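This section describes the prediction task in plain terms. A model, or a person checking by hand, is given the sequence of a single protein chain and must write out its three-dimensional structure as a string of tokens. No templates, partner chains or ligands are provided. The sample shown here is typical of the held-out split.
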Amino acid sequence: MRTIGIIPARYASTRLPGKPLADIWGKPLIQYVYEQARKAESLNEVIVATDDERVLRAVQGFGGKAMMTSPDHPSGTDRCAEVAKELECDLVINIQGDEPLIPPSVIDRVAQALGESSPDIPMCSAATIASPEERGNPNVVKVVMDKNNLALYFSRSPIPFLRHPLTSTSTFRHIGIYGYRKDFLLKFVSLSQTPLELTESLEQLRALEYGFKIKIVIVDYSPVGVDTPEDLERVREMLRCR
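The expected answer:
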């Protein structure tokens, strides 16, 4: 299967304007994400999907590939779909443009799990065990799964509720990387938003509410996203010696 990694990179950001071009030791943030994605063995190609020519020129400047998209997309998923529509591919991996430390192995796990799944599973994502602090944080999305690691529900609330806290049940933190079969991705962005999706502000719930299955792979990776100037400084410190 031909698998394409797409990194949506919107220039505007309320808390960190120009985030894709934020400098980290002489390189823009988006370059770190791109270079990590290029190391993934499962991807035939990596493309940055952006709404701003400054990001386009920056990516081309370090030798990467980028495509312009509409500035009106409500989400990175819609931006990915616009690019994917023009490509010959079977699978699309949506890689978050603000995670410069994402391990290539996580990308590979998601791509491989989707490629090996039956055709009735059109979507795949990832999760890791949440810390006690993350469990109660509404900015950290949690996911519960069935015995086949298919998602049952995603929530900003701590799920499952620990009625018996001494049980061995773990709380899983959702990681925002998505794999789609191309035809499903194009269908997904055409679907109307759903009540639970709007309530939790989690677009993956749209897939579940329409009855589609989402495979979850469990990985050993705690996401380090860049949403604020404080996050940026933390990542700079983490990358200081790399």
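For orientation: Residues 162 and 169 are 8 Å apart (CA to CA).
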